[in-house]
Amino acid sequence: MDIHHKKTDHFYKICDSMKEYMSYLSNDQKVFFYALFKQGTVGNAPEEPIFSDPVTVAKWEAWNKRRYMDCMEAKQIYVNTAVVFLKQVENKERMKFP
Q1: How far apart are the C-alpha atoms of 13 and 30, rounded to whole Å?
Q2: Which pLDDT belongs to residue 93?
Q3: Per CATH, the architecture of 3-90 is what?
Q4: What residues in the chain have per-residue pLDDT under 50?
Q5: What is the pLDDT of residue 49?
Q6: Three-state DSSP class for 83?
Q7: Every domain of the chain and the residues it spans
Q8: Could you tell me the pTM of the whole model?
Q9: Distance of CA 33 to the CA centre of its chain
Q10: How many CB atoms lie within 10 A of CB 8?
Q11: What is the per-residue pLDDT for 17?
């Protein structure tokens, strides 16, 4: 298995781990992870659609801010941030974002 596949497998394992702890995150933090996940797995956000739901708008805007970010870079940022978060959960600390 090449390095790209190993990193992708690790990314999906971290994503599965994060599902269990999403309730620990603020809405802004959830949107942060959503945007990186979408950029890493789908690529660029579609052209600006018409939304009326504020949550959907926030998710699209966060994803769109990462337009043209390399998918592997998005996955790596997701993994790095998630690992810090998961360690903080283990230590019962509150997640701090830069």
Answers
A1: 17
A2: 65
A3: Up-down Bundle (1.20)
A4: none
A5: 75
A6: helix
A7: 3-90
A8: 0.85
A9: 2
A10: 17
A11: 93
Report the sign of the C-alpha dihedral through residues 20, 21, 23, 25, in that order.
Answer: negative
**pLDDT number for residue 47:** 87
What is the spatial distance between Cα 24 and Cα 86, in angstroms, rounded to a whole number?
10
Joined together, the tokens standing for residue 69 give 């970010």
The phi, psi pair for 37, rounded to 5°, reads -60, -50
pLDDT at position 2: 73
The residue whose two tokens read 């978060």 is 85
Q: Alpha-carbon distance 15 to 33, whole Å?
A: 9
- Token output for 84: 């810090």
Q: What is the DSSP letter of 44?
A: S
User: Residue 67 and residue 45: Cα distance in Å, rounded?
Assistant: 7
Spatial separation of the C-alpha atoms in residues 34 and 58, rounded to whole Å: 10
